[in-house]
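Lecture notes, unit on protein representations.

Consider one protein chain, 279 amino acids long.
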Amino acid sequence: MDDKNKKNLSNISNQLEPIKPSRTHQTISNPSNHLEPFKPLEPLELFNPPSNPHRTPTKPLRTPTKPHHTMLNFFNRKPAVRFKAVDCHSHLLPGVDDGVRSEEEALRILGVMERKGLERLWLTPHIMEDIPNTTNDLRERFRMLQGAYHGSIQLHLAAEYMLDNLFAERLAADDLLPLTEDKRYLLVETSYFNAPMNLHALLDDIRKHGYYPLLAHPERYEYMSMSDYHELKSAGIAFQLNLPSLTGAYGHHVQKKAEKLLKQGYYDLYGSDTHREGG
């Protein structure tokens, strides 16, 4: 990212008001039948900026249930930056993980995204030991959503892989859904609180198989320090920013880490990590 875009993004993040953290990471043993113990981010609120996004508030503009400063502020503010038209992380494939649960819900969210100017969207459902989605099943469900959606957003299918034993098996079999932008990435994540014991070995294996590791929302990993991020970037690991992190959606600590990583120019791709239409 060039200095001009980094400065624009830094200015944007400084104008955004934090909102309360709304979800924490945890595994889901039965994604088709579980009741979420956390309140996920609300995409329809994420995709509705305040009526006057350029106002400098003197006091909070939100109520506890209706956050004002949202991810779509990034789409509306000027000067525009190119990443705004591409969302590289979402959970809008119906009924496969902790994201949307129906085709109708997915289509409503896509309609909001389309009206806000999104051009390209990557659907990145979870694949992990507790949510062992298969590549073929995800491709079939993606074809169904493509058939139902008649809007202008280009839809693409990838996956968000937990770095666990299932991922190691899928990598060895080359049974994967890459995310191809400027490179052929694999979007991967870890626990928010503990690194896998073989983190660097897994990342090396990804490269050996001809993919570029793309670490999802690195700002959210509590166990990582700036020295850890520097080590990963020096090793050629790409970073994907969750844009709501810059609004304080996951808490002040995550926001500050995101701002530091952004200032360092560490982010390569961007996403909303949209999960649901409402809480």
